[in-house]
Amino acid sequence: MHTLFNLTLVAYIIAAIAYFTGAGFKHEKIQKYAFLMFVAATIAHIAYFIWRWWAKMDVLDLTFLTAIPIRGAFEYSMGFALVIAIIVILARPKMPWIVSAGLPAVVVMMVFAATRNMEIHDLMPALRSPWLFVHAGTGVVAYAAFAVAAVCGIKYLSKLKKSEDEESKTMLQIDRMSYRAIVFGMLFFTVTIISGSMWASDAWSRFWFWDPKELWSLITWIFYVIYLHQRLRKNWRGKRTAIMAIVGVGLVLFTWLGVNNLLYGLHSYS
Amino acid sequence: MKKVFMFVRSMKFGLILLLVVIAFSVAGSLIPQTFEDTWYLENYPSFGEAILALGLHRMFSQWYFIVVSVLLGASLAAAAISRFMALRKLLQGVLVVPESGYRTDELVASKVSRLCTYLQKKRYRELNTGEATVYHKNRIGYFGSALVHLSLLMILVFGGLVLGLSYYDDVLLLPGETAELSDGSTMHLHSFTRRDPITDRIESISVITVSTPDGRTSGAREIRVNHPLRFNSYAFYQFHHLYAGSITATDVTTGGRDTFYLTERSFLSADGRTGIWFETVFQGWTMEEETGRIIPLIYDAPIFPDPLYYVLIMTEHIHEHRFAVPGTHIYVGSLRFDFNELINYPGIRVSFTPHPFPALLLAASALLMVGLFLSFYLTPVIVVIKDGHYKITASKSSGIELEIVAMLYEGEDIPKDTPDDEQVKIPENQEREVDI
Description:
The complex is a heterodimer of chains A (270) and B (436).
Chain A: H1 2-24, H2 28-60, H3 72-91, H4 98-114, H5 131-161, H6 169-203, H7 212-232, H8 239-262
Chain B: H1 2-9, H2 11-30, H3 37-43, H4 48-54, H5 63-86, H6 88-91, E1 94-98, H7 109-121, E2 125-128, E3 133-137, H8 142-165, E4 167-172, E5 178-180, E6 186-195, E7 202-211, E8 221-223, E9 229-231, E10 234-251, E11 257-262, E12 266-269, E13 275-282, E14 284-287, E15 294-297, E16 308-314, E17 319-324, E18 329-332, E19 335-339, E20 343-352, H9 357-377, E21 381-386, E22 389-393, H10 400-408, H11 421-424, E23 431-435
Antiparallel strand pairs in B: 1-23, 2-3, 3-21, 4-20, 5-6, 6-7, 7-8, 9-10, 10-11, 10-19, 10-20, 12-13, 13-16, 14-15, 16-17, 18-19, 21-22
């Protein structure tokens, strides 16, 4: 069944190459077909995700909630890519430019996933909890939303470099999409932190341990709080918030991967 | 006093404090917390002493972090108070309608009609003041920011109380043993297993009973990871497991026998003179091919793949160290000592958290989610149409003004006369209150 994952990855890569080739030659039809291929790849991706979920329930005899395939680097990055792909497809009718921003992010996450161990492993007892679904599930959605905000930020800055008017409809749309993605991500990320502390209270005896993962999650959360304050109260927009969105995803990636690999803590297994 | 309040509630002060918290968090993640003092001296030879002197190894319970937390609490309290004060009029059913700051692009009658239809379609509430028509929506959204600040203050206070007032202790018990807690309650361990009997998965499971001095009891309850027993402000967690040696001593003359679980150096004897000293159990062993000597092995991980007992045989004439593997036995005088397979025993964490702070912490978390939702997704909007001009009062980030202007000028050039920030700020004497 890993063949389906590999086929999905190849389909995403071909869709990306075709899309940017079409964009380069200003050939809308190629771009249209590339997008259709992207949609097909996403459907295959969903199928693989569901299969993996079912397989974990079946093979490992896990409950529905604990079998969610977002445990470990492979599953997490695959889930991360899937959420980005779904956001891109849903937002595309109103914001066609989002495909060129989101597609590379999906490909990068899928390629990263492909370099990780794909095998299905049993969960250690501490992870066999319904909190896994809430904590890791909301986490992957939040991270994907922050990634979408960042790619919007990159798109904004690249268009700005090409001297596009900051008040143009597209630029305002990109800026607003970035903000909306961060707002959406913040809601989910807050649930991630709250549910994580509840889970820690059940599994490890305390709500908060000042563990590196907790601390970097707090840092990321505070960073986005600062973003929202500057945006809502000081009316920061455009270039400044685009840069903040990009820096934010850097913090997200460090919280996710950097902490696990560089710092020792209670989340070392994740 | 007012100046102090204004400073404490200012966003600049709040943001500075958040940046300080970020700095502490970065440092706290780079310097592992709450290890033994010697660990820092060994691992950071050049600045280990500085870490200890500054208390950076227990940074989040140091006075300087507590001061920052208190200031952050004050900032959140001031922000919440000022936001609730601003909501007083709204709570009294009053809507503040601006008297100036209207867009300069005058609407023709058809556009006024289109705007009204659009707002009605979007389910705005309509209010006619005589001079102006007011449309408003999502008044509840005004509470969002106040609730967010209040709930964060609650999380800070209750979280601080939970962390400060709660404590825990790790108790090691062998099956059949009872431990007494600080308030006189007791915890009895009935059994411990390393395998779930239903799923056959490896998992530590203890069965315990907790009794209070006044006679209340939890009954025999199973605890395992993610499933603690909460009883009388205590929570009992299956935390880890350890190994104990197991030796059965049989008196061959009387036939009497007893099994001992051993975790530390102990002397097993019938008369106090003849018997064996249990020294330890090694995790593994290997044999030197040439000499046939047994070499005990110690691993970093808490595993015992090939356990090896190490004992001292003691009689009147003999003092001799011996190795023994499980399944073998030794005779010492009239006693036979059988070396059994190791047994597991649990480390149970007993945590005390005073009521009702955990529940209040959860309530504050729920309130935070409500506040964030109101702030982000129920943005309050007021649209006033007056003398062919209109004014939209809404957060710019909501994009509602853009939507409305785009709708009004669909297919046309949008006049570049959107009020700037100065115009949006309505002086107090240019506002009028309308009952709603």
